[in-house]
Amino acid sequence: GALMLANAAIACLESTTARYFMNTFDFTVGQVSLFYLFTSVPPCLMSGLAGPLANSFGARRVLGLGLALQGFFTLVGPKDVLGLEIASFVLLGAGMGVVD
Q1: How far is the C-alpha of 24 from the C-alpha of 74, rounded, in Å?
Q2: Residues 22, 28, 29, 33: is their CA dihedral positive or negative?
């Protein structure tokens, strides 16, 4: 259930973010694609840490933390401050890595 909910939220976010960045920051399609690296690299790193964290703190706690990170940093954006968008995408990606 949690994985389905998390992935549904990401699917909704990804389908609207490109248009938002193109309208708000005048990004090109290529710049939007590069911006997605901020949310695709952290899951790769965090997925390797999720197992050891779950072994130390319990799987339910780690999953809850990942979902909280995803939810909170989805709510923080969208803003018209690029630095805040970058931080939101990095920490959203970290939450994705913990959940997945």
Answers
A1: 17
A2: negative
How many Cβ atoms are within 10 Å of 21's Cβ, its own excluded? Answer: 20
Half-sphere CA count of 73, side-chain side, radius 13 A: 23
List per-residue pLDDT tens for the chain, 100 residues long: 777 777 777 777 777 888 989 999 999 999 998 988 888 888 888 889 999 999 999 999 998 998 888 888 878 766 788 898 888 888 888 888 888 7
The residue assigned the tokens 């695709």 is 40
Q: What is the pTM of this model?
A: 0.79
Taking CA atoms, 14 is separated from 8, 37, 56, 60, 71, in Å, by 10, 13, 32, 26, 14
